[in-house]
C-alpha cells in the first residue's frame, strides 16, 4: 500500500467519524428544539393564575395568594366601618 493509499484510508476513516458527529449534533439540535417548545409551554402555564385565566383562586401559588390578601386588607382598612353607624342608630332610640 502506497503512502497515497494510506492517506486515502485515513481520510475515509476521519470522514466516517465526522459523519457520526454530525448525526449526533443533528439529534441534539432536534432535542433542543423539542425542549425549547416544552419550556415555552411550561412558562405559559406558570404565568397563569386566577386573575388571567379560568383557574380558581385556590390554585394560585403562595405569592399570588399573599399579594391578593394584602390588597384585600388594604381595601378593608380604607372602608368606613358600617357597624359604628348601625350601633349609633341603636343608641339614639
Strand content: under 5%
Helix and strand composition category: mainly alpha
What is the overall pLDDT average? 82
The biggest beta sheet reads: none
- End-to-end distance: 122 Å
Roughly how many Å is the radius of gyration?
34 Å
Summed up, the helix count is 3
Helicity level, as a percent range?
over 70%
Question: Which consecutive residue ranges, at least 5 long each, have pLDDT under 50?
Answer: none
Number of strands: 0
**Net shape:** rod-shaped
Helix/strand order, N-terminal first: HHH
Task: Give a description of the structure.
The protein has about 90 residues and is mainly α. Helix content is about 75%, strand content about 0%. It has helices at about 5-45, 60-80, 80-90. The longest helix has about 45 residues, at about 5-45. It is rod-shaped, with a radius of gyration of 34 Å.
Amino acid at each position: 500500500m502506497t503512502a497515497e493509499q494510506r492517506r486515502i484510508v485515513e481520510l475515509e476513516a476521519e470522514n466516517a467519524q465526522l459523519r457520526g458527529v454530525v448525526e449526533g449534533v443533528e439529534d441534539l439540535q432536534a432535542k433542543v428544539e423539542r425542549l425549547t417548545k416544552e419550556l415555552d409551554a411550561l412558562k405559559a402555564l406558570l404565568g397563569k393564575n386566577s386573575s388571567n385565566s379560568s383557574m380558581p383562586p385556590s390554585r394560585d401559588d403562595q405569592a399570588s395568594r399573599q399579594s391578593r390578601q394584602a390588597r384585600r386588607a388594604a381595601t378593608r382598612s380604607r372602608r368606613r366601618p358600617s357597624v359604628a353607624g348601625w350601633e349609633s342608630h341603636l343608641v339614639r332610640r
